[in-house]
Amino acid sequence: MRIRTATPADADEMVQIRTxxxxxxxxxxxxxEVLAGLPEEASERYVRHLAEHPDLELxxxxxxxxxxxxxxxxxxxxxxxxxxxAGPGVPGDVRMLYVHPDHWSRGTGRALMREGxxxxxxxxxxxxxxxxxxxxxxxxxxYTRYGFVPDGERRTEEISGAELPCARLTLPKDxxxxx
Length: 179
Description:
This protein is an alpha+beta fold. The protein has helices at about 10-25, 30-35, 45-50, 110-125, 135-145, and strands at about 1-5, 60-65, 65-75, 90-100, 130-135, 150-160, 160-170. Helices cover about 30% and strands about 30% of the residues.
């Protein structure tokens, strides 16, 4: 497996991975019609996203052979500061981390997270946080095994008209990507 920086040419595969991961992990948590209606092709928004904030955001893909099997986006915590204030001292955010379900529990997510943690640490974007949909046991298992702990913060996310509860997890400051 190889981890590299994503390019706009990866957008279709990224959307396909996100769609497959949502359908597998969010079944029973998100309305079945919403999951069935997820796009499987890249939107202009995904392609644009890859070029939006090159200094404040890192998008990685994991490849196995010629195929992208996972991706992750690391950035500043937008709930803590605006883009103008983003930089060292602002918390980091695991904005997205999706692995195709056919490759779950094989080290792909951990490899992406390790590289993202290194980058966030180099940028001074600490502590590192992630928001997850409550009840998503796949996500909770992954992040707690990596070292994240629930910090008690909660919010709701609007997904296709539904307000869904989310919980925040934080990676302890003394965590090392090599742990």
